[in-house]
Amino acid sequence: MTYTYKTSGTCSSQIDLELEDGVIRSVAFTGGCNGNLKGICSLVKDMPAREAIGKLQGIQCGWKPTSCPDQLSKALTEALAAEGK
């Protein structure tokens, strides 16, 4: 399934992801720190979504209460719920 998540509180504005049976097949951010986000996308590819959530949830960016990795954990949580996992 493909899922689009509108981010909040980060430089990126959107996350597009694809899940297959609870496994991350692809992630793409719109906006944000290009190199860092490409690295995150590469690292989580083919990872179980729940594992990625556990690693990314709660990460802050400087003084902000969230970050792009934290927003990805929120997107994955919502996508899993939509997928029924």
| Radius of gyration based on Cα positions | 12 Å
Summed up, the helix count is 3
Please tell me what the overall shape is.
globular
> What is the end-to-end distance?
12 Å
Strands ordered across the widest β-sheet: 1-2-3
Summing up helix and strand content along with how strands pair, one would put the structural category as alpha+beta
Uncertain segments of ≥5 residues (pLDDT<50)? none
Q: Describe the biggest sheet? A: 3 strands, antiparallel
What fraction, in percent, of the residue positions are helical?
40-55%
Number of strands: 3
Query: Averaging pLDDT over every residue, what do you get?
Result: 96
What is the H/E string?
EEEHHH
In short:
With 85 residues, the protein is of the alpha+beta class.
Kindly describe this structure.
- With 85 residues, the protein is α+β, with helices and mostly antiparallel strands.
- It has 3 helices and 3 strands.
- It has helices at residues 34-44, 49-56, 68-83, and strands at residues 2-6, 12-20, 23-31.
- It has a 3-stranded antiparallel beta sheet.
- Helix 2 (49-56) packs antiparallel against helix 3.
- It starts with a strand and ends with a helix.
Note the topology:
Layout: E1 2-6, E2 12-20, E3 23-31, H1 34-44, H2 49-56, H3 68-83
Antiparallel strand pairs: 1-2, 2-3
Helix pairs in contact: 2-3
